[in-house]
Design brief:
The complex is a heterodimer of chains A (305) and B (507). Chain A starts with a helix and ends in a 7-residue tail after the last helix. Chain A has a single domain, classed as MetI-like (MetI-like fold). Chain A is mainly α and 305 residues long. Chain A is built from twelve helices and no strands. Chain B has three domains: 137 residues, 3-Layer(aba) Sandwich (D-Maltodextrin-Binding Protein, domain 2), CATH 3.40.190; 110 residues, Dipeptide-binding Protein, Domain 1 (Dipeptide-binding Protein, domain 1); 210 residues, Dipeptide-binding Protein, domain 3, CATH 3.10.105.10. Helix content of chain B is 32%, strand content 22%. In chain B, strands 1, 8, 9, 10, 11, 12, 13, 14, 15, 16 and 17 form an eleven-stranded mixed beta sheet that branches. A four-stranded antiparallel beta sheet of chain B has the order 4-5-7-6, with helices on one face. In chain B, α14 runs antiparallel to α15 and α15 runs antiparallel to α16. Chain B is globular, with a radius of gyration of 26 Å. Classes of the chains: A mainly alpha (305), B alpha+beta (507). At the A-B interface, α1, α2, α3, α5 and α7 of A face α1, α4, α7, α13 and α14 of B.
């Protein structure tokens, strides 16, 4: 396993280098950042001076190599907007995004897995239809739109929950539920189909014939074997949740990395954009690696090498 | 590898459980300041850039810093220039000014607010190593001479009609403290304004507390002011309706119109200094032809835009200037009457009927900017042009303007931080202007002349410039945006034309 982990870690580094290269290319296409960094009255001389100060008057290849070299040492430079080191700004906002994403994931798992199991056990009944309906709604509604609806209903009309970030744990409910809706639908569907598949297997019929209690059949033999695709999906969904957080953090004023990224893109604060990309890429790669290890742990038939 | 005895499935599953528990229990709750009677809570569209006055470029940052720092002079609610730290500003010669400072003011760390502080602040802003984005505001200040602890004489490079306006942007910092902390000033800023910093959590909130040592004329009105970034408009409105904020900024005309009869919230508005202007790329046919540009001006029905599209949340303008801009002749006329028949005739005479022409605009930066471009495009189609409207994200749009690769017709928002007509003309029409594609020596000469003048002569020269722009049909003013706020019903406040929110003006 250690060899596997070492190999995957190398792949993470290659992935980061790839993402950074693409990002560097994109930012060069995004236009002149001095438009956002100088007042309209600034002269051309001041614009050129700023370009020089930011190192943007150097040849492209020099900029690229210098950027990669700095990124390798974790020194992405100062945020052009905040005039502070960019990476710490992102790391400061990261816990809020992790809190939101893990809460959304927890909501998704806690609602989707029982609902999926129930739908599988009560196949073709109203329970199954209800669960399928929830899945369709969860997958069909754009998170931005459902977020606004929730604000209008639960904050403005019913006044049960705050509409913007903070205010302790209460403020986490709306963004986490909104963000987790789509993931919940996906997990519910895969849990249902996976459980239906496993419960139809010969070994389940055998343990049932041996008189094992139904709950043990369900959880020890059924869910345990159905868990591998569910866990794999959950791992992939975490990446989606980090992406979805960009929208949700904006709708609910949640102070995480997603909002930081949006603002950084709008203000052409490239060091900040690069820092966000670096952190998100590392996180996503590590989560994927972790999920692979977890799947192998749950089912020893899966070999990591 | 899965059989590695040091890393078993049991270990991994146990670790996973422990990590989940730690994440759930140990995650810090994000606590916000709560609404109370002696607090003022303001919801803004975004976060601030910095707490250091050398790094203030946007209004959101300016609003927060206005409470932390005292400026040398102040903009009064009617936008005239009034006293600040300086009780008087006397012009000694065309290039020399004496500022006499008030007695007894101190920074919150005890350092005196004196002439040395003025000198140090200007030197800091102009120093290369400070890397201030607003260096251009003060680079014209050549020497600063301390006459006495309460008097300073400033000499400018050239006669400067904007001197007093510049001083309203000069927010003082304490010399000893600032020199000691260097560029880390932002982390623990010290000013002499009515409030001091309690905390700034990026993208969460800025909390200010009343400054007990404030030496201004009146004591701070609130014990605490909270500025929260709330990017989503629906969430901002919800915050006011539910009492989570007293005042929120930047409502769109559509939302403002729908809230106008709501009892839970009052809608406040003011004409901003930002005017939407139809401009032309002087390097793109047929926009090189003044007659074509005039036809565009005649084809636009501005009343329809204001009443229909903007729902009345925009003000008509006669020039490229909003009414808050000072030094514009009262009788200046830079707009075009709505005359579609004449416009249609010109288009036909020029052989442009049915010709495909692109119109560009920004999308998502200003209220209904994309829709404005679409509406203007539709009006131009009515007079026979086959207009294709292309809107894009502001940065890409702005880059095209600067490189003269923008469409022949485009809609340019004109901001004006100095509330003076010349910086706006320089930015958009002078050959060396930040946003200008124009290279016209005659226009440059007129701008240079007006820029050297002062008093009534300057006003008259501005009038001539406005006439020149109209005669050449270089710009077609559309309307001035109105800045719209949602506020708690009990809040008493008259919004300012410079977009600033100053707590002491809110009752």
């Amino acid at each position: 396993m250690l060899t596997y982990l070492a190999r995957r870690s190398l792949l993470v580094i290659v992935t980061i280098a790839g993402v950074m290269t693409i990002l560097f290319g994109l930012q060069k296409l995004a236009g002149d950042p001095t438009i956002f960094l100088l007042p309209p009255e600034a002269t051309e001389a001041e614009r050129l001076s700023l370009l020089h100060r930011l190192g943007l008057d150097r040849p492209l290849i020099v900029q690229y190599l210098s950027f990669l070299a700095n990124a390798a040492t974790g020194d992405i430079g100062l945020s052009w907007k905040y005039n502070e080191p960019a990476l710490p700004i992102v790391l400061e906002a990261f816990p809020a995004t992790i809190l939101l994403a893990t809460s959304a994931l927890a909501f998704s798992i806690l609602t989707a897995v029982p609902l999926g199991i129930l739908a599988a056990l009560r196949r073709d009944t109203w329970v199954d239809t209800f669960a399928s309906g929830i899945a369709v709604i969860g997958q069909a509604m754009p998170v931005y739109w459902s977020g606004l609806l929730f604000i209008l209903l639960f904050s403005t009309t019913l006044r049960w929950l705050p509409s913007m970030g903070g205010e302790g744990w209460l403020a986490l409910i709306l963004p986490a539920v909104t963000l987790g809706l789509n993931t919940m639908a996906r997990i519910m569907r895969i849990t249902r189909s996976s459980m239906l598949d496993v419960l139809g297997q010969d070994y389940v019929r055998t343990v049932r014939a041996k008189g094992i209690p139904e709950y043990a059949i369900l959880f020890k033999h059924g869910l345990r074997n159905a868990a591998v695709p569910i866990v794999a999906l959950i791992g992939l969904q975490l990446g989606g949740l980090l992406g979805g957080a960009v929208l949700i953090e904006t709708v609910f004023s949640w102070p995480g990395v997603g909002r930081l990224a949006v603002n950084a893109v709008y203000s052409r604060d490239f060091p900040l954009v690069q820092s966000v990309a670096l952190i998100v890429t590392v996180t996503f790669s590590l989560v994927n690696m972790f999920v692979d290890v977890l799947c192998a742990t749950l089912n020893p038939q899966i070999r990591l090498n | 590898m899965a059989s590695n005895p040091d890393l078993t499935r049991r270990h991994i599953l146990s670790g996973l459980g422990a990590m989940t528990a730690a994440a759930t229990i140990g995650s810090p709750g994000i606590a916000f300041a709560q609404v109370s009677g002696d607090s003022l809570i303001v919801g803004q569209t975004g976060d601030i850039m910095s707490l250091d006055p050398a790094y203030r470029l946007d209004t959101l940052t300016g609003i927060v810093q206005k409470h932390l720092y005292s400026s040398v002079l102040s903009r009064m609610p009617d936008m005239s220039v009034g006293p600040g730290v300086a009780k008087s500003a006397e012009r000694l010669s065309p290039t020399r000014w004496r500022l006499v400072l008030r007695d007894g003011m101190t920074f919150s760390n005890g350092e005196p607010v004196d002439a040395e502080a003025v000198k140090y602040t200007i030197a800091r802003l102009n120093a290369e190593e400070t890397k201030s984005p607003i260096r251009s505001f003060f680079v014209n200040l050549k020497t600063v001479e301390v006459e006495s602890p309460n008097a300073v004489v400033i000499e400018t490079e050239a006669p400067d009609a904007l001197f007093q306006a510049r001083m309203t942007n000069l927010q003082l910092v304490p010399p000893k403290y600032t020199a000691g902390v260097g560029l880390k000033f932002n982390e623990a800023p010290i000013g002499s304004g009515p409030y001091v910093l309690d905390r700034w959590r990026r993208n969460e909130e800025v909390v200010l507390l009343a400054n007990p040592t404030y030496g201004g004329e009146a004591k701070p009105k609130y014990k605490r002011i909270v500025f929260r970034p709330v990017p989503e408009e629906i969430a901002r409105i919800s915050a006011v309706k539910t009492g989570a904020a007293h005042l929120v900024t930047s409502l769109s005309p559509n939302q403002a119109a729908s809230l106008s009869s709501n009892e839970d919230v009052q809608v406040l508005k003011v004409e901003s200094n930002r005017v939407m202007v139809v401009q032309f790329n002087p390097f793109a046919e047929p926009a090189t032809n003044p007659l074509f540009r005039r036809a565009v001006g005649l084809a636009i029905n501005r009343d329809e835009l204001i009443r229909g599209l903007m729902k009345g949340y925009a003000s008509p303008v006669k020039t490229i200037y909003a009414s808050s801009i000072q030094g514009v002749p009262a009788d200046a006329q830079g707009d075009f009457p709505y005359n579609p028949n004449e416009a249609r005739k010109i288009i036909e005479d020029l052989g442009l009927k049915g010709k495909e022409i692109e119109l560009a605009g920004a999308a998502g930066r200003y209220p209904l900017d994309r829709e404005t471009a679409l509406a203007v495009g539709a009006q131009l189609r009515r007079v026979g042009l086959d207009v294709k409207v292309r809107t894009e994200e502001y940065g890409s749009f702005a880059t095209k303007i600067k490189s003269n690769t923008v469409a022949p017709i485009f809609i340019q928002p004109h901001g004006n931080v100095w509330l003076d007509p010349l910086p706006q003309i320089i930015a958009f029409f002078y050959s060396k202007g930040h946003w200008s594609g124009w290279k016209e020596p005659a226009l440059d000469a007129m701008i240079d002349k007006a820029n050297q003048a002062d008093g009534p002569e300057r006003v008259a020269l501005v009038g001539q410039l406005i006439k020149k722009l109209r005669d050449d049909a270089s710009a077609v003013p559309l309307f001035a945006h109105e800045v719209v706020y949602a506020a708690a019903p009990s809040l008493k406040w008259r919004p300012r034309a410079d977009d600033l929110i100053i707590a002491e003006e809110i009752g």
